[in-house]
Structure formats: structure tokens, C-alpha cells
Amino acid sequence: MRPPALILASGSATRRHLLTAAGVTFSARAVAVDEPALRDSAQAEGASAQDAALVLAGAKAQRVRAPDALVIGADQILVHADRWLGKPDDLAGARAQLWSLRGHTHSLATAMVAWRDGRAIWQHVESPQLTMRAFSEAFMDAYLDAEGHEVLSSVGCYRLEGRGIQLFSRVVGDHSAILGLPLLPLLGFLRAQGVVAN
Questions:
Q1: Measuring CA to CA, how many Å separate 75 from each of 38, 49, 55, 61, 67?
Q2: Is residue 21 part of a domain?
Q3: CA separation for the pair 90, 37 (Å, rounded)
Q4: What is the CATH number of the domain that holds 98?
Q5: Is the pTM of this model over 0.90?
Q6: In this model, does residue 2 exceed pLDDT 90?
Q7: Which of 15, 16, 20, 197 is the most buried (most CB within 10 A)?
């Protein structure tokens, strides 16, 4: 019996790169869901950030119409001082967000959900902890000048795989989970599904 085709329900270049580098064969489809509305609704209902991230990841996977395929959706919510932060709209928002995180620890509720044949069959969530150092305003200016609009693609305004690592004094958690796709549990699930070699 042939294994199902694998589809990543994401427009994220970082998530695509992680799967490609791991040697996984897949296709990617960017999907549109109203992330702020779903996030706000979950928060208003008293859900945890982890549960809300699972809802968002599931909504993305569910949007892909591909009979018999295995679809993976993923999402991340940054949690700092009981506030949930999403991607900023512009560089001014990125600057304000970085300054609020400076010198503090935040977590990333990182979720994945797998859908097949119209139902969720697997889910996983992790919450890495990251502590930003007390960087100077001059450093932040140089950082934002160098990174430009790339920072707007991340909930934390940083790419840990690049210059963003300089923002931190401590990181606890799996690197791939911080980047938005926890690979070890995902690969374990894909092996069980026959998508990658056991």
C-alpha cells in the first residue's frame, strides 16, 4: 500500500526549509485563515496559548482540500507576561515588540496538527523558552536595518537561524520547535504513517 502524499499547509519558507533539509518529500500550499480572529476568540474563551495554537494549526490543515493526502498545519503564538503576540504589521511595530521583550523571557507555543480524510489524526505542541538580553537601542537599530522586513515574518521579530540569535542570552527548547516545526516528533509520526523510512 502506497504511503499518502504529504502536504505542508504553510507559506513559511523556514518550515519548508526544515522539512527539505530533513530529506522529506512533500508539497507546500499556503492557506488563508483569519489568524487574529481565531486567536482572539480562543483567548476570549479562556483557552491556553498552546490550545489556541493547536486550533490555528488545525484550521490551516483543514483548509487544504486533498483527498487521501496527509496534511500538516502548524502555528506559533508568542506569550510574554500573559500577553499573546502575533506578527507585527510594520517595522515600527517590530521595534516596539522587540523593546517589550528586551531583558525578559518569553515562550513560543508551537503546534502541529495532521489531517487526513477530513479529520485530525495527530497533534503535538511544545513551548520553548527564550530570554532576550538587555541589548542597546543602537544594537536594535542596526539589527532592524540589517534584517529589514524579514522580521515581519516571525511572531518574535527574529530569525534564530540568522542574525536574530544575537538578541538572546538563553534559549531552552528544541531548535526546530523555535523555528516553527518540531521535527523530531513530526518525523516520528511520519514514520508511523509510512511517509518516511522507518
A1: 12, 11, 9, 10, 23
A2: yes
A3: 19
A4: 3.90.950.10
A5: yes
A6: no
A7: 15
Locus of grid cell 493547536: 54
Cα R_g (the chain), whole angstroms? 17
| Residue 85 vs residues 30, 81, 163, 181: alpha-carbon distances, Å | 21, 10, 21, 18
Confidence band for 9, pLDDT divided at 50, 70 and 90: very high
Say how many domains are in the chain: 1
Query: What is the residue whose three cell numbers read 534584517?
Result: 147
* Active-site annotation, residues: 75
b/e map of 140-150 (b: 16 or more CB within 10 Å)? Answer: beebbeebeeb
Q: Which helix (H) or strand (E) holds 172?
A: strand 168-172
Interatomic CA distance for residues 26 and 20, integer angstroms: 8
Residue 1 domain flag: no
Q: What is the DSSP string of 55-106?
A: HHHHHHHHH---TT-EEEEEEEEEEETTEEE---SSHHHHHHHHHHHTTSEE
On whether the CB atoms of residues 65 and 52 are closer than 8 A, the answer is no
pLDDT in tens, 85-139: 888 999 999 999 999 999 999 999 999 999 999 999 999 999 999 999 999 999 9
Range of the domain at 106: 6-192
